[in-house]
Design a protein that fits this description.
heterodimer, A: alpha+beta, Ubiquitin-like (UB roll), five-stranded mixed sheet, 5 strands, globular, B: alpha+beta, Aldehyde Oxidoreductase, domain 3, four-stranded mixed sheet, four-stranded antiparallel sheet
Amino acid sequence: MALELSYFAWVRERMGVAGEVVTPPDDVTTVAGLIGWLAARNEAGARAFAEPQRIRAAVGGQMVGLDAAIPPGAEIALFPPVTGG
Amino acid sequence: MIRVHVGSDAIDVAAEMAAHDAGGHGASAAFVGRVRGEGGLTELFLDHHPVLTRSGLDELATEAAARWNLAALTLIHRVGGMAPGETIVLVLASSPHRSEALAAVEFLIDRLKTDVMLWKRETFDDGRVAWVEQRGSDHARAERWEQGAN
């Protein structure tokens, strides 16, 4: 199942790309599972996702908790807690 | 009338205020957030999402307009690089009465610090570059509005 990922702020810097299309294994069904898979996939992922509690996510344009399920073909944004204003 | 804008162009506070106040409202409240130049800061960079930053601001503006009796609302956030003293964010709210205008401005500035996809990165004159960490106090302020305590 291909997923379209985008990264922001220091997550993007540590990943080295603004986004990518990935195809995780079938047992990755939640955002937390995806983050764990990305962390284990390569060095950049390990740097970006070493502390999952510092990661926030939006799936299909909606902010979600890390326990949220991933719908097929979802667009997923991964980023640190926001600091606007 | 609701005006929401996200862009890398400088915010013309006087022009925005003039346009906002064209309706001659009874009470207008304003918040202007500027880049602080303390600690040798040379640049503040605001990262944003090309779609969701705008929609997040739209949602907050809609919520404020539903919650208070507002004649006009302006919510503008700058993104990209900016220098000390430049305006980051402008919030204007107008109502027949001051209490609603003031409450709406405070609600919007509190909630946009926790609900909208924006990230600050600071560059200093000694070469340090650091992403700003979210503060617990920001969440405490934003959560006040969830309890309906206004």
